[in-house]
What we know:
The protein is of the alpha/beta class. The protein folds into two domains: 6-85 and 159-247, 3-Layer(aba) Sandwich (Rossmann fold), CATH 3.40.50; 92-155, Hypothetical Protein Ta0175, Chain: A, domain 2, CATH 3.90.1070. The chain has helices at 22-31, 45-54, 81-88, 93-100, 124-136, 161-172, 206-211, 223-234, 240-247; strands spanning 6-10, 35-40, 62-65, 70-73, 78-79, 106-113, 116-121, 142-146, 151-155, 179-183, 197-200, 216-218. An eight-stranded mixed beta sheet has the order 5-4-3-2-1-10-11-12, sandwiched between helices. Helix 1 (22-31) packs parallel to helix 8. The protein is globular and about 55 Å long.
Amino acid sequence: MAGIKWVLAxxxxxxxxxxxxxxxxxxxxxxxPEIGAIxxxxxxxANAEPLIRRHGFPEPLALATxxxxxxxxxxxxxxxxxxxxxxxxxxxxxxxxxxxxxVPGVEYLGRSSHWRLAFRVTDHHALTAARxxxxxxxxxxxxxxxGEQDRxxxxxRGAFKGRALKYxxxxxxxxxxxxxxxxxxxxxxxxxxxxxxxVLVANADIGLREKLPPVILRSPYEGAxxxxxxxxxxxxxPIDQLEAEYAG
Length: 248
């Protein structure tokens, strides 16, 4: 933490990786060690850690995985047992499966992690029925819908990236004014709701773009180029070089 003045708190897929600019952003961050990195992702630790290292991004101050259900600290990625206990308190995967068993149009696919149950859902009527059944049975949960894959994931009710980030910043004694957030998808919405300055990259969901407050920049650049664009504006750095890199 010594020497850290600012923090970049970012989603990974579609934001840091996948649309170019990864090496340029990694180089910029390596040249500015006063900027710490916090990563928040829907991935598990096993999937997220190699991706961060592969692209040369900085060692994390913290990593929040499974949409914020787990928090890990430092380069050793020590699990935060206290945070995990909070998620487990009212999380019952077996009850979720039992309640949704037999709901027409809902098929259990398996567990993509210990925090996430996946179901194939045939249409929006089945989706509404599944969500209604969970509420009626008093199951503490949160649902995530992927319309492209007709998939509904059920996760702990406290699994939010924004909630995990607030916890991390409090533990690190970092003020909200020192934090810059970046994202591209609906599950980044609570990161980008206006508590912090931040950037929405150009490849983001159109619906999300329309919902966000003015304090969130809408970058014309995709992926890591968009993060770099927003971060440079946040730090009042010149962006001429970025325009040349992106055009090239």
